[in-house]
Amino acid sequence: MSEFPPCPKCKCEYTYSDGVLMNCPECGHEWNPEEVAAAEAADQVRDANGNVLQDGDSVVVVKDLPVKGAPKPIKAGTKVKNIRLVDGDHNIDCKIDGFGSMALKSEFVKKA
To answer: Is the dihedral of CA 75, 78, 83, 85 positive or negative?
Structure first.
């Protein structure tokens, strides 16, 4: 086994370093391990307080959110269980009691 991380492209574990860059002998991919770590950190979804969110977490809405077509907004303090993270502007899919399926932005929730 190698002490180097696996290839981000093909997941080969026989990678090697040529000084600054890492190389994969199977697919020929070259990458900078610092850039890969920075990209992975940028992919994390964070709540209003900066906590990292994951699938299955419970969150609390931090401000009243108007819902198009609904007579009342989602009130601040509403607890949402078992969230699912998705790509896009509204990066949380969930079900809210009394409203049904919703897509929320992570900046309007905090981890419960």
So the answer is: positive
